[in-house]
Design goal:
Blueprint: E1 2-3, H1 25-33, H2 40-53, H3 70-91, E2 96-105, H4 106-117, E3 121-123, E4 136-145, H5 146-156, E5 159-162, E6 170-174, E7 187-189, E8 192-202, E9 212-221, E10 229-231, E11 238-241, E12 246-247, E13 257-259, E14 266-273, E15 282-295, E16 298-303, E17 318-322, E18 325-335, E19 338-347, E20 365-369, E21 375-376, E22 380-386, E23 390-397, E24 407-413, E25 416-429
Parallel strand pairs: 3-6
Antiparallel strand pairs: 1-3, 2-4, 5-6, 7-8, 8-9, 9-14, 10-13, 10-15, 11-12, 11-15, 15-25, 16-24, 17-18, 18-19, 19-23, 20-21, 20-24, 22-23
Helix pairs in contact: 4-5
């Protein structure tokens, strides 16, 4: 198997962050101290200047601790949140490809697209036992979005993608002989590629009211990011037949969700419709909008002084705060043969869309690290509490040494982006 490019991370890897400028350290420190100025105008001016300096100041902002004044904590948090959100939104723009060559080997075309966009592309044909014909590609891309460029290359080489490889990436395989090309079928919207898959029509002969039509589409995202959920409010979907008939969406008040696990490269969405009259041969226009929940910048919370519970003595929780995300370790105690670590994660400004979609947080990495930087993974995890802005969990570890000799690391996105994605399909032939 030839791997064209490997990359890791969620939406924004640490390596993508603007480098901190050492000469700014004194300036940032002075502006942060100005947050405690007596005059509000001075405090506002300091905050404005930090914002103008951009995301390169993020590594230079001080950690917020127990001794941090309330005003400094509030303003530092606000600066972090605004800069991180701007950074994440910039990273959420579609990747662009500029490539102009008339006779380019396929492998070179894939390598160049991968390098320019940060999206891993893998030639997966050998894994399928398929013949690898080295096609020649004509590339004429000028700031062309990733999916349009890749589909163009794949169509020239009679290739397509395999969506079930179990790891992140675009996995190239031979296109089945009777399958249509990719570009003509797709709808492109920002980071996402949408493709109509099929209709399923059902007519209950004992109850005409039970007739139904289901439309299925595939949603694919740029491999460099990984949404954890896609929400489809059915009230945002509309369909019109070729005869002008409005085709109603069933259960329009519902909001079905497609959960995305690490390693998935596509998700399938189902839209329930009413079965139209037989005179309707096609859906002339089907359009809608879904919401992709995408993790923003990921941060490590590292704890060296842990609240290890002693006999007959309650432990004092320890916490760390970054950009409005608070990670608290309530206690670490021996529970039979295992060490139990109780942790809470709180988001000071959670999205209302996330209140019922917290399952992703159980996928966050949590581990101990020894002095040789070797990871000790948990043997179990259980959720202990949940409300609209906080989730509690217990982690269980088999440790050969005291947790006081180790560092506990908790890795979590600092925010979740809600990306609205609009789409429109035309001339969908009905069964």
């Amino acid at each position: 198997m030839i791997t064209v490019l490997l990359c890791t991370g969620l939406l924004l890897a640490a390596g993508d962050e603007p480098a901190a400028k050492p000469e700014w350290a004194d300036t940032v420190s002075r502006l942060v101290r100005q947050f405690d100025a007596a005059q509000r105008t001075e405090r506002d001016e300091a905050e404005r200047k930090l914002m103008e300096m951009g995301s390169a100041v993020l590594p230079l902002l001080p950690p917020i601790g127990e001794r941090t004044s309330a005003e400094v904590a509030r303003r530092v948090t606000r600066v972090q949140q605004k800069l991180l959100r701007a950074q994440a939104l910039a990273a959420a723009q579609p990747s662009l490809v500029t490539l102009k060559e008339t006779d380019l080997p396929l492998v070179d075309a894939l390598q160049k697209i991968a390098k320019q966009t940060g999206n891993p592309i893998t030639d997966h044909r050998q894994e399928f036992g398929e013949q690898r014909d080295e096609a020649r590609i004509k590339a004429d891309f000028d700031k062309t979005p990733f999916w349009r460029a890749l589909d163009n290359v794949l169509d020239q080489a009679d290739l397509t993608l395999y969506g079930f490889a179990g790891q992140r990436g675009a996995f190239v395989v031979n296109r089945p002989p009777d399958a249509a090309g990719r570009a003509a079928r797709a709808c492109y919207s920002g980071l996402f590629r949408l493709e109509p898959l099929r209709f399923e029509a059902v007519r209950d002969l004992r109850n005409e009211k039970m007739a139904a039509l289901k439309f299925f589409m595939e949603v694919t995202w740029e491999p460099r990011l990984q949404p954890f959920s896609i929400l489809q409010p059915l009230g945002d979907v509309s369909a019109v037949g070729n005869t002008g008939e409005t085709i109603s969406v069933a259960s329009a008040e519902a909001e079905p969700e497609a959960l995305v696990r690490e390693g998935m490269s596509a998700a399938e969405l189902e839209i329930p419709l009413t079965l139209p009259k037989r005179s309707t041969e096609k859906i002339a226009v089907l359009k809608g909008k879904f919401l992709a929940l995408v993790p923003g910048p990921v941060e490590d919370f590292r704890f060296k002084d842990l609240p290890v519970a002693a006999k007959n003595a309650p432990s004092k929780p320890v916490e760390q705060r970054k950009a409005g995300t608070i990670v608290t370790i309530d206690r670490v105690r021996k529970n039979n043969d295992a060490w139990e670590l109780s942790l809470r994660v709180k988001f000071e400004a959670p999205s209302t869309a996330l209140e019922s979609h917290r399952g992703w947080i159980l996928e966050n990495e949590a581990f101990f690290e020894d002095t040789d930087h070797q990871r000790i993974e948990p043997g179990g995890i259980e959720q202990t509490a949940q409300d609209k802005d906080e989730v509690g969990m217990n982690y269980y570890f088999d440790l050969k040494q005291s947790p006081q000799e180790l560092t506990f690391v908790y890795r979590t996105p600092l925010m979740i982006l809600e990306l609205p994605v609009e789409y429109e399909f035309r001339d969908l032939r009905l069964p």
